[in-house]
Amino acid sequence: TPADPIRDFMVQRNMEVLEEYDPASNPFATKIFINGTWVGVHQDPKHLVSLVQDLRRKSIISHEVSLVRDIRDREFKIFSDAGRVMRPLFAVEQEDKPETGAVKGTLVLNKEHIRRLEADQNLNPADEDYFGWDSLQQGGVIEYLDAEEEETAMICMSPEDLDEYREAKKRPKQSEEDHHQEKLERLNDDATDLNARVKPKVNTDINMYTHCEIHPSMLLG
């Protein structure tokens, strides 16, 4: 993906280009990097990152563009160059959307998407009504992440784990004794199934998951 249109877009979104930046007047601005080159700074990185992520989910910019925000170092890095290994993940809603009924912390994937995919079984990929993988990607259901962006993502291992996390966040914090009892019950349940996946304790200290594995085996590529 060409870098120049991305740079032009950033300038339109109030990015201060590097040639005009005065560090003394604004030492806490977030640096913007495109393919490793420092091109400017921005005063409101949270809004900017959210905006660009939304554009990627709507396929206005390519799904192959990587967006990495390093809050500690105050850097926002955008990569559009070739040669980056990427893999698909389910996207997770980051806020409630009353207009669509989407709930914060749930998969962007919904029953309508699944219904369309089931209908694809009776269609030819060349048909106009065919939904398919590309439509999931263009609808923001699936996002491709490279190794750099994965470092800043919180990835849940399965949709079931994501549901458990949401339910656990709603409950009052467990005492140590209750947690120990729950762990014993889970171990007893798993003992009956030798092929059961070993599941870690739900960590409610995590603020929010951003993505979810399509299947745990996809960690291997």
UniProtKB/TrEMBL annotation:
- What general EC class does the enzyme of this chain belong to? transferase
Name the protein family: Belongs to the RNA polymerase beta chain family.
Q: Which GO terms describe its biological process?
A: DNA-templated transcription
Looking at the record, the residues that make up the RNA polymerase Rpb2 domain are 32-93, 133-216
Locate the region Disordered: 164-183
Q: Name one GO cellular component term.
A: DNA-directed RNA polymerase complex
Q: Molecular function terms in GO for this entry?
A: DNA binding; DNA-directed RNA polymerase activity; ribonucleoside binding
- Name of this protein: DNA-directed RNA polymerase
Report the coiled-coil segments.
none
* E.C. numbers: 2.7.7.6
The species this protein belongs to is Apiosphaeria guaranitica
Keywords on record: DNA-directed RNA polymerase, Nucleotidyltransferase, Transcription, Transferase
Enumerate composition-biased segments (Basic and acidic residues): 173-183
Q: Which residues form the signal peptide?
A: none
